[in-house]
Amino acid sequence: MPQITKFDIAYIKMAQEWANLSYCGRKKVGALIVKDRMIISDGYNGTPSGFENCCEDEDGMTHWYVLHAEANAILKLASSTQSAKGATLYLTLSPCKECSKLILQAGIKKLVYLDDYSDAEGIHFLKNHEIEVLQLEKNTLFHKEYKTQNDELE
């Protein structure tokens, strides 16, 4: 079973803060992509550039064009000189099926997340394609007793 590092805890807390930047009312999701202990991209769920920052319709349903946090982070990398190959993705909510394909295609090798999305197929897909998946328990994130492994750079 994979061990949790103090860096996993720190980055997931940062992803939680990033989620707070979302304009979505129903669900705020944050993402960080980290490689060699450097944040190389970030994202939160929201509308595409140039759209009004309103994620839900008048019935409270999410607009179909809202981008998920992980998709935003991966797309941001596409316009940079960085690569997600071998990186770790920190997410406040497990990915959907569509975003799981993006994660695999981007070359991300590890996913650390907090809450479960309503459909677990995305997680199953990643596990079946040799992506290391680790869920952190939200209620233990802020306890100093949280047991971590030796935090040497891999």
In short:
The protein has 154 residues and is of the alpha/beta class.
What is the CA-CA span between the terminal residues? 17 Å
Number of strands: 5
Number of helical stretches of at least 4 residues? 4
Average pLDDT level: 91
Low-confidence parts, pLDDT < 50 over ≥5 residues? Answer: none
Round the Cα radius of gyration to an integer and report it.
15 Å
The 3D shape can be described as globular
Major sheet description:
5 strands, mixed
Overall structural class, as computed from helix and strand content, comes to alpha/beta
The oligomeric state is single chain
**How are the strands of the biggest sheet laid out side by side?**
2-1-3-4-5
CATH architecture: 3-Layer(aba) Sandwich
User: How many domains make up the 3D coordinates?
Assistant: 1
Describe the structure.
It is a single chain. The protein has a five-stranded mixed beta sheet, with helices on both faces. It is globular and about 45 Å long. It has helices at residues 6-19, 69-78, 97-106, 121-128; strands at 30-35, 38-44, 88-93, 110-115, 132-135. Helix 3 (97-106) runs parallel beside helix 4 (121-128). Helices cover 27% and strands 19% of the residues. It has one domain: 3-Layer(aba) Sandwich (Cytidine Deaminase, domain 2). With 154 residues, the protein is α/β, with parallel strands linked by helices.
